[in-house]
Amino acid sequence: MNALELRLVWTGITAAWRKEILAYFATPLAYLFIAIFLFCVGVFTWDVSGFFDTGAADLSPFFYWHPWMYLLFMPALSMRLWSEESERGTRELLLSLPVSLPGLVIGKLLAAWTVAGVALLFTLPWWLAVNYLGPADNSAIILSYFVSWIMALAYLSLGSVVSALTTSSVIAFVLGTVGGFLLTAAGWPLVTSNISALFGPIAADLVAQFSFLTHFETAQRGVLELRSVVYFLSFVAIMVAANTLLIAYRRSGRR
Amino acid sequence: MLEVNALSKSYLSRPAVAGVSFEIAQGEVVGFLGQNGAGKSTTMRMIAGVLDPDEGDARLLGKSILTERNDAQRHIGYLPEGAPLYLEMTPRSHLRFLADCLGLTQSERREATDRVIADSRISAVADQPISSLSKGYRRRVSLAGALLNDPPVLLLDEPLDGLDPIQKRAVRALIARMAPDKAILISTHTLEDVGMMCSRVLIVDHGQIVADDTPTALAARSNGGLESTFVDLVSTEDPRL
């Protein structure tokens, strides 16, 4: 890739990021997303997990729910990224512009990731509250926030791909949620124990290695495993490539 | 400025465009006439790089839309069918997004946006949400987007659709003003518009060009003028069937 191509990609990223951020915050979408996300995470952390009953000054009851929350909330953010372009006919306008497709795909994805990051930022007072309650393992908390945000990008990248498959935002949401559920549940003890009973522990371990849950759990323990970060980033790279190919494929005129 | 060579496209083995070739030079305003489904929009999409042809190529100022897509697209202003827009944006922010995609600098962007807002007569609504605008204003916002980088080649798919007579007159005047510096291809159903705007007419039927002449010469081919000539040249069978 030469300097001119890189510049085209960068132009695409910045143009699409700015446009999508405007779209999220010019409508109630981002505000509703952040409010409902904070409410649900709050209910599950403080009420369902009984945060105050644990007697420990840590945020593990909070991070425990992240993958399960993301599998519902991230498709809600990503569902319109490409389906709406098809539905409105603006995809034709985008394809007529001298701009890099991978740049547009990355820019849109980064905009959705920014909104997810803002939602996470609003949970920082809980971190302060935990430190107020007692000595907390702040390095584990920082690591969990970092990996959680990267995991959110992985869910969003999957949602962006399914959004490129359909003209309906609702269908994109449903498909994104189903896909996210499969990638989450693959590491759930209930699923891995059944796979182990049916196909043996090696098969169970192999399936669990493809789960977001497995790779996020190591971070929750305060351990930064390079392979987990590589896993999430590789997943995102594959999804971005698939997303770009799907949009480019529309140029063929085939449905 | 625009060379179209044997463009062909089929959908499910039914030819939509079959070997269309033509050239448009600077200063020409060419009307692209045909029934619904005759292949006008498909041809425009292929020239704009939105749709890949099965065969053939289009060159814009010598740049191939197939092998030098980005370079070729820099020379095109394209108004797609239906004038799609980002409804939650204002005309100004919509134009800013297009300018960002074109890689314009801040000062170029400001200058270009102000120019096309004035040319398209949308100053009064430039900061209102597009969703609140009438069909006529939306069409003009789309047209402003197509003119943003002052491209030498304009592809306008039904540019006058949805405009009232006063707005139509203003757009015709804008096209006439730009015409000497550009090659313009206008798809339309309205024969009256062709007579008023175009220096040349291409009539397309079942994906093929069946006539290429001036409006006056085409009108002289039959007693009933351009409309009679058009009816004589195109098949009465619906091309979509």
Overview of the molecule:
- The complex is a heterodimer of chains A (255) and B (241).
- With 255 residues, chain A is mainly α.
- Helices cover 82% and strands 0% of the residues of chain A.
- In chain A, α2 (29-48) crosses α8 (101-121) and α10 crosses α11.
- Chain B has helices spanning 40-48, 69-73, 91-101, 106-119, 135-147, 165-178, 191-197, 215-219, 225-233, and strands at residues 2-11, 14-24, 29-33, 55-60, 63-64, 76-79, 153-157, 183-188, 200-205, 208-213.
- In chain B, α3 crosses α4 (106-119) and α4 (106-119) packs across α5.
- Chains A and B meet through α1 and α7 of A and α2 and α3 of B.
Features:
A: 255 residues, mainly alpha, 15 helices, B: 241 residues, alpha/beta, six-stranded mixed β-sheet, four-stranded antiparallel β-sheet, 25% strand
Brief overview, please?
The complex is a heterodimer of chains A (255) and B (241). Chain A is mainly α and 255 residues long.
Write the layout of secondary structure elements.
The complex is a heterodimer of chains A (255) and B (241).
Chain A: H1 3-26, H2 29-48, H3 51-54, H4 60-64, H5 66-78, H6 80-88, H7 90-95, H8 101-121, H9 124-133, H10 138-165, H11 169-185, H12 189-199, H13 201-208, H14 212-220, H15 226-249
Chain B: E1 2-11, E2 14-24, E3 29-33, H1 40-48, E4 55-60, E5 63-64, H2 69-73, E6 76-79, H3 91-101, H4 106-119, H5 135-147, E7 153-157, H6 165-178, E8 183-188, H7 191-197, E9 200-205, E10 208-213, H8 215-219, H9 225-233
Parallel strand pairs in B: 3-8, 3-9, 6-7, 7-8
Antiparallel strand pairs in B: 1-2, 1-4, 4-5, 9-10
